[in-house]
Write the structure tokens for this entry.
Amino acid sequence: MVESERLQLPQWFNCGYCGFRSGTFKAVCPKCGREGMALKEGVTRGEVVDFVPIAYPPENLKQLGEYVSVLVKLDNGCQIFGVVLENQKSIKIGTPVAISSFNQETKELFFEIL
Amino acid sequence: MGKRVAIVGVGMSKSGTSSVPSWELFAGAALQAVKEAGIDLSRIQALHLGNVYSSFTEMQTNMAPLALSTLGIDTHIPSIRYETACASGSVAFRQGYLSILSGMYDVVLVGGTERLKSISGSAVQQAMATSMDIAERNVGLTFAAYWSYVAKAYARKHGLGDAKLQELLAKISVKNHYHGAFNKKAQFQKEITMEEVMGSTMVAPPIKIMDCCPFSDGAAALVLCSEETAKECRNPVWILGSGQASGGFPIADRTDLSTNPAITKAADDAYKQAGVGPKDIDVAELHDCVNIHEVICLEDSRLVKEGEGIYSADERRTYFDGVLPVSVSGGLKSRGHPVGATGAYQLCEIAQQLRGDFEGKRVKNPEIGMTVNVGGTGAVVTVTILGREG
């Protein structure tokens, strides 16, 4: 695990377009066509855009048990999926959340409810 | 594009569970298609074959030459396997079509094959998950969750409450099983009730198990040929338009999950090439891997207006005797979803509807039919328009 503040997300292209959402590298910006994806640290908070309770976890996440898949809009405008394990019943659209941990090895990304 | 290409023979295995490997399944379907075409096997000049998961499920790659060998074709013709998730069968079809249009070949064999039932459900799910973005899989997204996000986005956009959404979705499953009950090649040849769908296990709210299609074994094949060669064949069905488009791969990049612009692009390209519009379509096979996706396909291909797709089964518009018959085969839900073959099944079924010899419910005198085949989480789309007359 790494501290959430140290998590680097490739978020911004030269034009400011939010090109990274789910973790996929893009060689050029879909908006301005230029190269130059930058890595940024420190954007760890956002709010829940939508969520889906997962009663039957996939094989790669079986060890988690039941979890909630969340689509989160970070404070910089990027959208990203993640996992919520605690206080699952209290999640609603608009619930403020923060990245709690990121597993470098498995690439699992966890949010906690604020 | 002055040339024309025809479908002159089709063949399908019964969708469901197979005891033979996928290349043998395909050989059986291909022989049906070749016999129906009345063209000697030695005249086939190339094979374009869709297959997705054989490297996981059957520990076999390099499927296309294996299928040729299994067929007994030893004329050293080219053979190619296509993997574009659930759209593999229709992409193989399209590449065969383009190879004839180019003038390179005169007669080609196309289709798809898949065998998923031979391994455990969890292994199939793991294999199928590889068709999604690995980064999004790692952060908890599943196919079921994706369709849940899509359904919820659609419901919010159109002001549908959860109970109403689930009820309207269930009616699509009921409709497709009604059709499938009459299809001799369908995996589930039985009707289901609203109560069965509504009472089925919740997978990812609001998506329940009976909203989803099964995994299937199956193969489908078509013989395509040039206009000149089609003169030798009886009852050709013409390829009027073919569109293919790519959707964005990561889901979180999309601004509106209730729509897939790639379907619209592929459909518009196909309509333009065919010189027809949505109102000219008499019958369609759509990609109902989950019933909400039948709605998305209906709307994004412009067959119905935005917001109307969800009501189409409830209003019986999409039944075989409705104004816009959809998935008269039973669709993926009832006919089954042998992934790499599904697009080829759809094309065989529409060709048979147009010829009037589909072994199931038949649409009354259709002249133009359409298929929408979608791979993965909407990342690959083909739309094909077929016609009785060229």
Q: What stands out?
A: Chain B touches chain A at residues 122, 125-126, 129, 133, 135-142, 144-145, 148-149, 152-153, 202-205, 249-253 (CB under 8 Å). Residues 162-180 of chain B form the longest helix (19 residues). Residues 45 and 162 of chain B are 53 Å apart (CA to CA).
